[in-house]
Amino acid sequence: MRKTALAMMVGVMVLHCGVAHAAKAWDDMSWWGNTGAKPEPKADSKERTGCWWLPVEAAKNDKDGELWGNRGVMFHRWNKPVAKEEKRAPLEHRPRKDVYPIIYNSILFDFGKAILRAEGKAEADKLIADLKHYDHDTLIIEGHASSEGDEAYNMALGMRRADAVKKYMVESGIAPERIKTVSFGESRPAVTNDVEANRKLNRRAEFKMTYFN
Fold first, then answer.
1. Entry pTM
2. Has domain 107-210 been given CATH number 3.30.1330.60?
């Protein structure tokens, strides 16, 4: 009987030593405050460098092989781990080629001017609404002029017209980087410049939208 009791005591001691040996993996105290038990450690109210930790709610640590609590160490230095931000690759917005292009009316201008009229603003408002709804689409505004005046003047006039439309759209809430302006001056007339009725149609701004997913 005594031999049996002695054997059981030896077995308990070996088991106890085995558990103590397993705990050495935590001797550096890096586990302290970081087991997930709640509440987390709180800084000492007297502004000492340590924290008090009295957890009452265990975290599930099936693989730890250790107790979930503070293991009797109530006061210790602790810095709350900073969660690493997961870096996400930016979404790649590719042009959609399967979209039937929307045809927008040109904005017409008075002779020698780059000021939007009421009807021009109404046309621009249609593009503004679409750009706000599809917030990845981009726009190219092309400025044009009739054939009166010299070529350099008309090139500059076409740019002023395109820029005037862009300014109106940006003031209406469209990001400027989504809009590009370019001038073709008198080089790309919509119709021949032989009569005034046609020249009125050439004093214009046209639009090219690129659709993105």
1. 0.56
2. yes
